[in-house]
Amino acid sequence: MRVLIKLGGTLLDSRESRLRLTSEITALANTCEVVVVHGGGKQMTRFLAERQIESRFEDGLRVSTPEVMDAVLKVLTGTVNHELLATFVAAGARPVGLSGIDAGLVECEPMAPALGAVGRPIRCDAGLIRLLAGQSYLPVVACVGGDRNGRVYNVNADQMAVSLAIGWQANSLYFFTDVDGVKNREGQVTTSLTAADCEVLIGDGVATGGMQAKLNAAVDALKAGIPEIVIAPGGFDGLLAGLRRGEAIGTRLVGGTVAAQRLRKEALSKRI
């Protein structure tokens, strides 16, 4: 069993939250292979603001100028990654800090000129995480990638997680976030979504910004055949144990068209 967990930066900003999540993840890592991918957007924004560097976003992605990329390396692969490693050590795990650059783990290409050094993952060589996870180490991957010409890219953590999940052939992909799940137009959490549902939510402007980026990434994982994909609230105590028992926590991405038809009817009724 292979489980890939993506942790949002907001969840990592609180020591209490880090302690609880790392304890739960360590317990899971004692029973199966686990890889963790983390962001650090909140910490990045704070670091940049302290240096009077503007944070700009397009479609939920941070525009990455040379000044921002300097911060990305300092904050994501430095402070955030190593604080998380230290917390895992205290929980009894054997974490190994990585980025997508290590051993060519995640190769990227530029996403769009307007985004600067934001990279789109195009290839994952999962050999290193396969080796580490297979020997009971816990790979903890910061969302920074590179290319074969030595360029460094800021990578959306959700896209990084999907790239690794596909390359590693994960059985489960969990996005842990600071919200209860994916919400519909009425602000209620939707327990399950298909790829078509996600397109409706994005197209109708219900899912925007970071959630839009997350859904786009999750749909890529669904289409690539990842068996289980869940967007779940990281603040839920006993979250991992509940998910492994199959409890309805957060939002699951599923195949099929029934939910899509329901969402389309809802959207049409709102427009009439």
| Count of strand segments | 14
Mean pLDDT rating? 90
Give the total of domains.
2
Poorly predicted ranges: 258-272
Question: How would a crystallographer describe the biggest sheet?
Answer: 8 strands, mixed
Distance between the termini: 48 Å
CATH topology of the largest domain: Carbamate kinase
- Beta-strand share of residues: 15-25%
Name of the top-level CATH class of the largest domain: Alpha Beta
Report the order of strands and helices. EHHEHEEHEEEHEEEHEEHHEHEH
Structural class: alpha/beta
Can you identify the CATH superfamily of the largest domain?
Acetylglutamate kinase-like
Q: Return the CATH architecture of the largest domain.
A: 3-Layer(aba) Sandwich
Number of helices: 10
- Strand line-up of the largest beta sheet: 5-8-2-1-11-13-14-12
Can you give the helix content as a percent range?
Answer: 40-55%
Please state the overall shape, judged from the principal axes of the Cα atoms.
Answer: globular
Give the radius of gyration: 18 Å
Model description:
The chain has 272 residues and is of the alpha/beta class. The protein folds into two domains: 2-170, Carbamate kinase (3-Layer(aba) Sandwich), CATH 3.40.1160; 180-227 and 245-272, no CATH class. Helix content is 44%, strand content 22%. It is built from ten helices and 14 strands. The protein has helices spanning 9-12, 15-29, 41-50, 66-91, 127-134, 157-168, 195-203, 209-223, 239-244, 258-271; strands at 2-7, 33-38, 57-58, 61-62, 95-99, 106-110, 119-124, 138-142, 144-146, 152-154, 172-177, 192-193, 228-233, 251-253. Strand 9 (144-146) and strand 10 form a beta hairpin. Helix 7 runs antiparallel to helix 8.
